[in-house]
Records
---
Amino acid sequence: MVDVGAKAVTRREAAASAFVKLGPGTLRLVRANRIAKGDVLNTARLAGIQAAKRAHELIPLAHPIPLENVAVDLDIEKTGLRVRCRVSAEAKTGAEMEALTGAAVAALTVYDMVKAVERKAEIVRLRLDYKSGGKSGVFRRRA
Amino acid sequence: MVDVGAKAVTRREAAASAFVKLGPGTLRLVRANRIAKGDVLNTARLAGIQAAKRAHELIPLAHPIPLENVAVDLDIEKTGLRVRCRVSAEAKTGAEMEALTGAAVAALTVYDMVKAVERKAEIVRLRLDYKSGGKSGVFRRRA
Amino acid sequence: MVDVGAKAVTRREAAASAFVKLGPGTLRLVRANRIAKGDVLNTARLAGIQAAKRAHELIPLAHPIPLENVAVDLDIEKTGLRVRCRVSAEAKTGAEMEALTGAAVAALTVYDMVKAVERKAEIVRLRLDYKSGGKSGVFRRRA
Amino acid sequence: MVDVGAKAVTRREAAASAFVKLGPGTLRLVRANRIAKGDVLNTARLAGIQAAKRAHELIPLAHPIPLENVAVDLDIEKTGLRVRCRVSAEAKTGAEMEALTGAAVAALTVYDMVKAVERKAEIVRLRLDYKSGGKSGVFRRRA
Amino acid sequence: MVDVGAKAVTRREAAASAFVKLGPGTLRLVRANRIAKGDVLNTARLAGIQAAKRAHELIPLAHPIPLENVAVDLDIEKTGLRVRCRVSAEAKTGAEMEALTGAAVAALTVYDMVKAVERKAEIVRLRLDYKSGGKSGVFRRRA
Amino acid sequence: MVDVGAKAVTRREAAASAFVKLGPGTLRLVRANRIAKGDVLNTARLAGIQAAKRAHELIPLAHPIPLENVAVDLDIEKTGLRVRCRVSAEAKTGAEMEALTGAAVAALTVYDMVKAVERKAEIVRLRLDYKSGGKSGVFRRRA
C-alpha cells in the first residue's frame, strides 16, 4: 500500500466508463425492458453504485475512501450499452479505482442480465476517463 | 433471480479473459518486477481469485455457488497483459459470472498497480471464453 | 450455532413480509416514480435480494445456505407498501432468516428512498409468513 | 446517491427502535437466559452493532459513514423485547439508516434465537425515533 | 487454489485453539464480568463463530465451505483464556482454516475487550488441534 | 462500543507481529518458493493487508478507521516466519486491532499455504508491539 499519510486532503473526482457491445436484438429487448431477468439498466446502475463503495475490499492495495457521491449512468447506443461511473470524495488519495470498479461491475451486471439471449456479448472497453485532485492534477482522456 | 431449484446439479466450468493494453515501458517494468507498488502479476492473480469467490455479492441476481476451483493466470504479451480466469463447481447454475468477475478484478488490479506510470492504460476486452455444464451445453468462443 | 450435521437435506422454502406505512402523498410519488432518490420499488427489490444472500453474515448463529431462489415483490397498497420475500434452497436447515432479512432490508431501503419526504414513516410489521421443509414441517401464518 | 460533497460536516446522531412481540412463555425463557440457542440479549446486541457498521453495504444508496458510536440496548417489556439503537458520527450526511439497520438486525437476531419456541413471533414496529445534525435539524418522534 | 473437483464429499471436522495470556488482575475482571467494554467471553465467542463463516473471504486460497456447525468455547485458566473453535461440514475440502480463523478472531476479540486494562497481553498460541475427513485422514495433536 | 465522539483526531500508528514456527524442511521450501500452493510470502502479505482493512467487520466493538497505510512484512528466520504488520491513520481511536488482524490473517495464510507439508505448524505469538497517538500515549513492547 502506498502510505498516503503525508498527503493533503483534497477534493477527488474520478470518472470511468465501460462499453458492453450488444447485438441489435438484445438492444431492442433492453430498450423495451423485456429482458426476462428484469430491468437491465436499473439493476446495473445499482450494482455499480454498490460495487464502487466496496472497491477497497476488491483491489488489494486500494485505500478505503469516504465516498460522497457515486453516480452510474447507462446509455443505449447503436452497438451496445455505455456505462459511466463518476465518484467524488474528500480524501488523501484518488478515487480512480472506485470509479473503475463501479463501471466494471455495472457492465458485468449488464452481461448477467442479457447472457441468456446473447452469451457472446463482450465488454470492449473499461477505462478511466477523468480524474482530478491531488498532486498529479487533472487527467482527461482525449476523445 | 432465476429460480434454479428444478435444475440438475452438474459439473459447471467457465473461463473468461480480459486484456489490459499497456505501453512497452510499462510492460518492461512489469516483466522486471520493478513496478513500485509491488508484484503486479501475483497481486492481480490473488485479487482475481478472491473476487471470483464474491461474485454473488457483487452481481445482484447471481446465485451463491460452491466453487471448487478458481485459477487466474496472467501472461505478458506484446501489447499488454492477458488475464484468464477459470472456475469450476458442481452446481445448479453456471459459473460464468464468477469467471468474469475474477478476470475483471484481476485486470482492475493490474491497472491499480501500473496507474502511476501509465494512467491512460485501458482494459480493451473482458468476455466469456468458455462455459460447460447445464442444459445450454458447451459454449466456446471462436478465435 | 445449532449443529445441523445430522439433519437431512430437504427442500426448504420460506416467505416473509414487511409493511411500510406511508402517507398518501408519499404513495402518490412512489406510484408515479417521482421520488427524487430514484425508483423505490426496484431499488428495494434488489436490496432485498442481495441482503437475503448475506443473511448468514448478519445473523450471528445462522448457517450459510445455498439459496436457489430469492424473490422480492413490492405492492402499493392503500396505506403503504407491502414487501414480500420468498426464498428456497436444498439445505439441512431452514431459510427463515434469509426471507426475513430480505424483507427487512427491502423495507429499510424503501424508508431510505422516501425519508426525505416522510421522515416519520414506519415499518409496522416484519414477520415470517410461511415455512416448509425439515422436521418441523409446514408453518403457515393465519390471515 | 445524493451527492453530499457540498454539505457541511456536522455532528450526526440518530436513534431507531424495534419491538419484537413475544408471548409470556418466551419472555420467561429470555429473562431466565434459558433459550437453547444462547444468550438472546447479548447476541442481538452484538449483531445490531455489527450491522450498523455495514449499513452502507446493505442500503444501496447509503453513504459510508465513519461511525463514532453504536449502542444497542434491549429491554424486556410486558409483551415483548424493545430494541433501541443509537449511533453518532461527524459526517456530511445523516446516520438514520445506520440506526435503523442496527435495530432491524438486532430484532431479527432475537427472532432467530427464539423461533424454535415461538415461530410466529413478529416485529411489530421498526422506526426512526430521533435524528439530529445537518440542515434538516432535529427530528424527534412524539410519544 | 487447489482444484478439489475430483475429491469426494466427506464429513469434515476440525478443531483449533488459541491461548490469550492474561495477568491475574485482568482475569479477575473477566471472571467477574466487570470489563468496561462488555462481556468478554460472549463477545469473543460470537466474533469467532462469525469469522469462521467468513474464512474463505480472508484466506485467499481457501474454498467456500457449507459449515454445518461452528462452536467456540472460552475457558478461564490460571494464566489466561483458552479459546477453542470446532467446525464441521460435508465438503470436498477440509475445514482447518475455518476453525483456525474462528479461534484467531475470538482471541483477537478478547484482546480488544481487555486492552484498556492490559495492553501488553499476548496470544501465545494459535494452532490446529484436530482434523478428520478426506484422504489425509485424522490429525490429532499430541498433548 | 466505546463512544469516541469526544476524542481528538490524532495521528495513530500501531504495529503487531506474529511468529509462525516452521520446521527446517518447510522453511527451505518457502525460501525456494517451491510450496505447491504458491508464493507464501506474497500471498500472506496481501491477505494481511486486506484483512487489516476489514478489522472493524471482524472485531465486534471496533470502529471503522480510515487507514492511510498498511504494511505487512514477512521475514524468514531460523525457526519460522516472522510477520509484522504496521498501520497508520488519522483517527479518533487507535488502530491496534487493525495491525493485529493484519498480522493474524497473514500468519493464518502462511499456515494455509504450508499445511500440506507441515500440518502441525503453530503460530506461537501474536501481539501488539507498538502503538502511538491518542491520550494513552506511546506503547512500545520491551524486547
---
Amino acid sequence: MDRKIISVKAEILRELRNTKGYISGQEISDKLGVSRTAVWKVIQQLEAEGYDIEAVTNKGYHLISYPEILSSGELMSRMTTLWAGRRVYYHKETESTNEDAKYLAEEGMEHGSLVVADMQTGGKGRRGRTWVSPAGESISMSLLLRPDFLPDKAPMLTLLMAISVAEVITGLHRDLDVKIKWPNDVLVNSKKVCGILTEMSAEPDYIHHVIVGVGINANQTLFPEELQDMATSLRIEKGEKVDRTALIIGIMEYFEYYYGIFAEHLDVSDFVDIYDSYLINKGKEVRILDPKGEYTGVAEGINDSGALIVKLSDGTIKTVSTGEVSVRGIYGYV
Amino acid sequence: MDRKIISVKAEILRELRNTKGYISGQEISDKLGVSRTAVWKVIQQLEAEGYDIEAVTNKGYHLISYPEILSSGELMSRMTTLWAGRRVYYHKETESTNEDAKYLAEEGMEHGSLVVADMQTGGKGRRGRTWVSPAGESISMSLLLRPDFLPDKAPMLTLLMAISVAEVITGLHRDLDVKIKWPNDVLVNSKKVCGILTEMSAEPDYIHHVIVGVGINANQTLFPEELQDMATSLRIEKGEKVDRTALIIGIMEYFEYYYGIFAEHLDVSDFVDIYDSYLINKGKEVRILDPKGEYTGVAEGINDSGALIVKLSDGTIKTVSTGEVSVRGIYGYV
C-alpha cells in the first residue's frame, strides 16, 4: 500500500523537515504536483502557526524550528504509518474525541482515521465515568477501526493499544518505569498515565466500527488532590516536558504493526510475553470482584484470549475474562 | 413493578375498551386522576382519529368500534406489559426505526422503549442491506434494551425475539405453518415474513444499549417479482388482513416473558426445545459457508448458546456460532 497525499500542508512540512539544507518552491511544487503559488501560501500559513522558516533567494526554504503544538499539519507531516492515523481530524477543543470518531464513522470515514484534541470538555472514561483532559497538557485521541472479524474479538484491541502505549512511552523515555494494570491502564511509577476506552457498534456477526479512545496524561504539572495518589503525568515523573506529537505518532506506528500481527490469528498469543512483561499484577495477589463472590489469588499473566490467569491458594487456576470481573490489587481498583 | 401512567390518552382508551357498557367522564376522571375537561378533550381526539364513541347523557361513554390503524394511543392502550413496549414512540413515516431507537438511547430513554413506524423510507436489513416496509401494510419496530449482562451474551437476544415472533404468529393464526430459519428469520410456508436486525453499542465489558429491530410483512398483497419466491406476508398466506397492533403487543408480551427467563441463566437452555420445534433446518441438510471452506451436514438443533449443531456425514459434530458462517439449506440463503 503506497502512502497517498491527504494533506498538501502536511506533505510540504514533511519535505521541509526531511531536507537538511534548502529546498526550493519549484522542487516542492514538482515533487507534490501542486502549483508554486500553493506552496507559497502554505509556507505563509506555517509561519503564522509558529514555524520558523528561512527563505533565501536562489536557494529556497529551510525549516529552522517548529512550535510545540498539536496540529493536524504537524501530526500528518510526521506520520509514517500506512493507515493508522494517516488521516487526522484535529480539534483545539472538543467535547469527546470518541464521540467525534463515532460521528465520523457514521459519515463513512475510513479505517484508521484518527481524531485528536488538545482539550476535551466532556472526556469519557469507562462506563460513563469522566476523564480530565486539560488544554496544552494532555493527549486525547480516538482511532476509528473497521475490522472484518467478529465482534467477540474486538475486546482484544484494547490490550493491543495498552501494549502500544506502554512500548512507546518506554521507547521514548527509557528512564520511566512503565507498567500495565490488567486489562488496559498504563501506569508510570504505579500511577495511572493512560486510560483506554474502547467502544463498538455491531450486529451479532458484524462489526460496524470500533473506536479505541486513548487519554494520556502527558504534560500536566498538577492533579486534583483526590487524584494525586492514583494519577500522574509523564512530565511529573520525568521532570521535563514530553513531545505529544512524537507519542501520538509512535503509538500509531506500534498499533498498526501489532494490529497486522493480531489480524492473522485473531488472538493475542503473539503478545502474551510482551504484555506479561509489563503486567504490574504479575506474581502479585489480586482480588477478583466476581458477582458470584469475591476471591483472591495470584495473577500469573494473560492467556491467548487476553484473560487474566489467576492461581488460587488451593492451586486451582481460574481465568478472568476482560470485563467479567474487576480486579483489585495493591494498586487500587482497575 | 406497577404499571405507571405514561399516556393519559392510552389509559382512557384502555378504560373504554375494558368497559362492557358505559363509563362516565367522572369515573374516568376519578380513576386516572385527571380533570373531566382533559377526559373530554381526549374523547374528541379519539373520535377525530376514527374511534366510534357513543356518548349518552347520564350513562357516559361507550366504545363502539376502533379504526384499523397503528398509533401510539392504540398501542399503549392495549399494551399489557410491565416494561417491554410500555413507552411507544410512533412515527407515521421514518427513515429507520433502529436509527430512531439509537437516537432515543443516546437521549437516555429507558429500557423497553419501543419505536414503531407505519412506514420506513430507509429500512435496514443485516449488514447494511435494505428492508422494504410500505405504508399501511408492514410492521417496523425497534426495541431499546439496556441489559446489565456482558456484550457477548447479546446475540442471543436475537433468538429470543425470533421465538417471540414465531409464537405470536402461531398463537394468533393457528392455521399458518410458522418456522424459524437459523438464526433469526421467521418464515411462513417456507417464505420470509420477518427479519430481525440486532445492533449493539458496547464497551468490552459493558453494554451501552442493544436495539432489536423487527420487520414483519403483515398486510402486503404484492411483492416485487425478484422477492416473490423468498418473501410473503401474513395476509397473503392467511387470505385476510391481520391486526398489526395485536401482533406488536403479543410480541412485546412474549419477549418480556422470555427476557426474564433468559436473564436468570444468560443462556438459551430453557428455549432449546421450543426453538428447535420451529427450526426449519432441523434434520435437513445445510451447507456451512465457513471462511475456511464450505461443508455440508445435517442440522440437529441449537445448543445452550444458540449455536447450530451440525452433524457431518462422517459423524463429526460441529457447532456453528451465530454469525460465524452462513447457512444455506434447501430454502435459499439465510
